Amino acid sequence: EIVLTQSPGTLSLSLGERATLSCRTSQSVTNNFLAWYQQKPDQAPRLLIYAISRRATGISDRFSGSGSGTDFTLTISSLEPEDFAVYYCQQYGGSPSRFIFGPGTKVDV
Amino acid sequence: EVQLVESGGGLLQPGGSLRLSCVGSGFTFSGYWTHWVRQAPGKGLVWVSRIDNDGSSTTYADSVKGRFTISRDNAKSTLYLQMNSLRAEDTAVYYCARSWEGAFDLWGQGTVVTVSS
User: Fold this and answer.
1) What is the DSSP secondary-structure string of A16-60?
2) What is the DSSP letter of B116?
3) What's the rounded Cα separation, in Å, for the pair A44 and B5?
4) Fewest CB within 10 angstroms: A19, A69, B32, B112, which?
5) DSSP calls for B43-74
6) Chain A nearest CA to B52, separation (Å)
7) Least CA distance to A103: which residue of chain B?
8) Mutation test of the interface with chain B: which of A33, A90, A99, A106, choosing the one with the most B Cβ atoms within 10 A?
9) Closest CA to A44 of B90, B117, B22, B29
10) Which stretch of DSSP H or E encloses residue B103?
């Protein structure tokens, strides 16, 4: 069974600062099936990054994804007010194949 | 507009049944795997179930296997989730979503299911 771990649980930063969020998977990612989502209170999640490093349609280039194997990073280059939210990583894989989310990282002021 | 719209949530007692629906529009519904993802109050996202493009293959999370059934009607661009033997721990916002390249690229607004006596 795949397990995703995100760190830190909460990241307290200021406007303009760089945010670095970590996601570790218990099984190596195959086919680059690793994605990141942003969720604000009372809203549905929004896809930010798919295939480890590809930005979804309409996503600011402030957001970037990187990593390989079992260690992955979402970076927000310079925090804007609308970036304060919870961020989830997600992997598709395993046997049988499943979609698994990490527990989330909250980015707040 | 490309969107997914869920309906069918509600309040019911443990052991009850409910069917959720999700209508897709603005895209070729049959071209995508579609899923249900839930989020309990104050908790994270949990994938529940997926169905492939033509409904021939389904997969479930262990927590709902044998109790929930996912299905779709491509002629109506609609995804369903039949939920039986509901438990308090099934209380959540239920989102439908489509996937592409292993990621959920389109989400509905969610429908609330509350299981309580």
Assistant:
1) T--EEEEEEESS---TT-EEEEEE-TTS--EEEEETTTEEPTT--
2) -
3) 12
4) A69
5) --EEEEEEE-TTSS-EEE-TTTTTTEEEEEEG
6) 13
7) B44
8) A99
9) B22
10) strand B103-107
C-alpha–C-alpha distance, residues B43 and B27, integer Å = 31
Q: Environment class of residue B51 by beta-carbon count within 10 Å: exposed (0-12), middle (13-18) or buried (19+)?
A: buried
> What CA–CA distance (Å, rounded) separates B41 from B91?
8
CB-based contact B47:A99 (threshold 8 Å): yes
Token pair for residue B56? 């021939």
Q: In tens digits, what is the pLDDT along chain A, a chain of 109 residues?
A: 899 999 999 999 999 999 999 999 999 999 999 999 999 999 999 999 999 999 999 999 999 999 999 999 999 999 999 999 999 999 998 888 899 999 999 999 8
Cα distance from A87 to chain B (closest Cα, Å)? 10
- The identity of residue B43, as a single letter, is K
